Amino acid sequence: MRLVLLGPPGAGKGTQAALLSEKLNVPHISTGDLFRANIGEGTPLGVEAKQYIDAGKLVPTDVTARMVKSRLAEADAAQGFLLDGFPRTVEQAEILKTLLEENSQQLDGVLNFKVSEDVVVERMLARGRADDNEETIRTRLAVYRDETSPLIDHYGEKIINVEAEGTVEEINARALNSLGK
Ligand code: AMP
Predict the structure, then answer these.
(1) Which architecture characterizes domain 2-178 according to CATH?
(2) Ligand 1 nearest-atom number relative to CA 143
(3) Which of 71, 32, 72 shows the shortest CA–CA distance to 52?
(4) Count of CB atoms within 10 A of residue 137's CB?
(5) What is the pTM of this model?
(6) So where does AMP get bound (predicted)?
């Protein structure tokens, strides 16, 4: 299964992706996690990405797309994947479409995790990640509204809505149910 997970920062996508990845037996590919691993290792990619991530802004698309392309080329992604945090713009969605078409593949669906802004801010402040201070959170929510939420219309019929308020288990059950699992 080839799925994209969509939703505002703090929607719990990462947590749900990890659970779904086990159930569906496909790798969880998170661009945020890949960036953080690169930052941790001090790679050139990490050094470049850090300034954007710390400010809550999007890392430039060419850098991000190159990283995604090489990750999708790894053997474990051949039979499917859960993409978490990519695409984040319509431009990135077009790049993903082209990448998949090169292998005669397409997305099976786009899970859209729906959650109110109040819950999102609460969750982000609770998890305490380095880029989870109030100013950065505000910037990331604005980036989501302006650049990422248009993907809901862009993907149209591929969108599968999941109500993402409640416990981790409840949301996971809803997500699986929406996929017919
Ligand atoms: P996340 O873990 O998905 O919340 O991502 C953390 C940060 O990584 C974001 O605020 C962005 O700075 C950066 N990032 C993650 N995915 C992307 C992407 N697809 N395009 C650009 N920047 C990204």
Answers:
(1) 3-Layer(aba) Sandwich (3.40)
(2) 10
(3) 32
(4) 18
(5) 0.95
(6) 31, 36, 57-59, 85-88, 92, 129, 140
Six-digit token string for 79: 């039979």
CA distances in angstroms from 23 to 16, 37, 138, 172, 175, listed in the order given: 11, 24, 33, 10, 11
Binding-site residues from annotation for ATP: 10-15, 127, 166
Could you tell me the pLDDT band of residue 125, with boundaries at 50, 70 and 90?
Answer: confident
Listed by start position, the domains of the chain span 2-178
Ligand 1 pocket, residues with Cβ under 6 angstroms: 9, 31-32, 35, 52-53, 56-59, 64, 85-86, 88, 92, 140
Binning pLDDT at 50, 70 and 90, where does residue 108 land?
A: very high
Per the prediction, the chain carries an average pLDDT of 96
- Distance between Cα 96 and ligand 1 center (Å): 16
Q: 114: which strand partners? A: 163
